[in-house]
Design brief:
With 214 residues, this protein is mainly α. It has a single domain (6-207), classed as Helix Hairpins (Orthogonal Bundle). The chain contains 4 helices and 3 strands. It has helices at 11-83, 92-130, 135-165, 197-207; strands at residues 6-7, 173-180, 186-194. The chain has a 3-stranded antiparallel beta sheet with strand order 1-2-3.
Length: 214
Amino acid sequence: MARSGAYISDVHLLEDLDKRIGSSGEAMSQIDANVCNYLNEVKESLQRQLDFIHDRLNDAQQRLSQAESALSACQASQSAASAMGMMCPSCVMEEQEVEMARMEVEKWRMRYEQGQQIVGDCEREIAEYNGSDGGHSLIRKMCDQQTPKASQLLHGCIDRLQDILGTNVGSGGKEVETLFSDSGQQSVGEVKSSSSDRRFDAFRRSVKGGNGDL
């Protein structure tokens, strides 16, 4: 039964693959950092806007309180004037001020509630990204665990192939292959004995990246 996996006998390709794995890990790490910075900047921006709306809501509530106090004072004056048989002052202006102030309060209250919902949604999305199943955890696992492991396996193969390149064959040689199995393990070993030095030399040429008929 044939073994499954990837067979590579060119040391230069392995070295290039190792560099690409390392650069990919660095690129993904930078992307993760950029995403985290962007999410935090968005959250801070939304929070500043929410604080601004909250301040406007407080201002509107203060104006409403003042308008209600002015209306209450006007209505008290009406009651006093009516009891004394005097002409009652009009409170139409104060009533209009109260109505406008209430509308202003309601406007900023609705905006503040909507802003709270948006900020809450943003915080939940950030928490999901930073959670154990989120993108941040996935990238960190790849950069901190998977990439170093893959690089370590490749270095083992490269070292063995370099040993092959430095082998001085005397009366006979052995044909060697590098195997990456489906489980991620690698092995470089003897496949079969060869009675011809020419075949081993051809293999070494293929390891160097040249052409050789095995």
